[in-house]
TrEMBL record:
Residues 161-262 form the Pyrroline-5-carboxylate reductase dimerisation domain. Pathway: Amino-acid biosynthesis; L-proline biosynthesis; L-proline from L-glutamate 5-semialdehyde: step 1/1. Its main location: cytoplasm. It catalyses: L-proline + NADP(+) = (S)-1-pyrroline-5-carboxylate + NADPH + 2 H(+); L-proline + NAD(+) = (S)-1-pyrroline-5-carboxylate + NADH + 2 H(+). The gene is proC. NADP(+) binds at residues 8-13, 69-72. Catalyzes the reduction of 1-pyrroline-5-carboxylate (PCA) to L-proline. Keywords: Amino-acid biosynthesis, Cytoplasm, NADP, Oxidoreductase, Proline biosynthesis. This is Pyrroline-5-carboxylate reductase. It is an enzyme of class 1 (oxidoreductase). Residues 5-98 form the Pyrroline-5-carboxylate reductase catalytic N-terminal domain. It is found in: Cytoplasm. It comes from Arachidicoccus soli. Its EC number is 1.5.1.2. Belongs to the pyrroline-5-carboxylate reductase family.
Amino acid sequence: MSKNIAIIGGGNLGSAIAEGLINSGFAKAENIFITKRNIETLSQLKEKGAHILNNNKEAVANADYVILAIKPFQIKDIISEIRPSLKARKHVLISVVTGIWIKDLIEMTGEDFAIVRAMPNTAIAIQESMTCICSHNASEEQAGFVSNLFNQLGKSVIIDEKLMDAATVLGACGTAFAMRYIRANIQGGVEIGFNAKVAALIAAQTVKGAAELLLTKHTHPEEEIDKVTTPKGCTIAGLNEMEHQGLSSSIIRGITTSYKKIVQDM
Ligand SMILES: NC(=O)C1=CN([C@@H]2O[C@H](COP(=O)(O)OP(=O)(O)OC[C@H]3O[C@@H](n4cnc5c(N)ncnc54)[C@H](O)[C@@H]3O)[C@@H](O)[C@H]2O)C=CC1
Ligand SMILES: O=C(O)[C@@H]1CCC=N1
């Protein structure tokens, strides 16, 4: 029997999850119940056959798995609103809300629920997310279902909840960090002769190819670098200059600064 999935909050992430689940074939559109206060922007999902609602309780009542994809400041009110429709032995709650811990969710729902925290990134829109997952009270079947769900939307890994802030920085903020690296390549590419469009294509596909090498061959980055660097050649000259200017150090410091910001704010 196919499971019904409610997505509470059809914004950037919520609608991308719905789209990815339908496009991958993991869920039929008719098994998805997605909510938003103003449902007009969800018309594409409606055309595909998903249930578009502005009633969270109705979505929950129809679902087995409930994905919470709203902003952190909204979660308390929304859980109070849907709480009467939640049934402990029926519903599994999946929160992608940044900085909301399982203990916070238990305070809002009570002890009896299977609760999953997931940290995806915006590449979920094209089924290329990296999603870190941890769970509480979930049966093997429920945890397996959630892992399968996120594996349809990219790759997933199970982590300890204490690493969720670190996952947010490396996996979710990481998309922005990678974009800035690509942007710098475009700027450099224009300075050495390409127009911006061609420079953007070369920069993005080169970064994609480099990432695919590591994911496919399971090699260490330095092993791949050795294959590119001709002795006395231009690659090592450029790389060493980047390191003299602090490339690795600035990335490490950016990551640890983001991490300190999350830990201090939450
Ligand atoms: N953007 C990112 O890179 C990542 C975001 N997150 C987390 O995911 C969550 C959602 O993020 P986004 O999709 O980017 O935000 P968003 O603002 O695009 O989506 C939230 C949606 O919830 C809807 N909403 C507001 N009140 C509602 C209500 N009472 N009932 C139903 N829907 C309601 C809003 O209309 C909006 O469409 C946030 O908690 C964020 O921290 C997690 C990982 C990465
Ligand atoms: O910048 C932020 O706070 C959020 C967390 C993950 C991505 N965006």
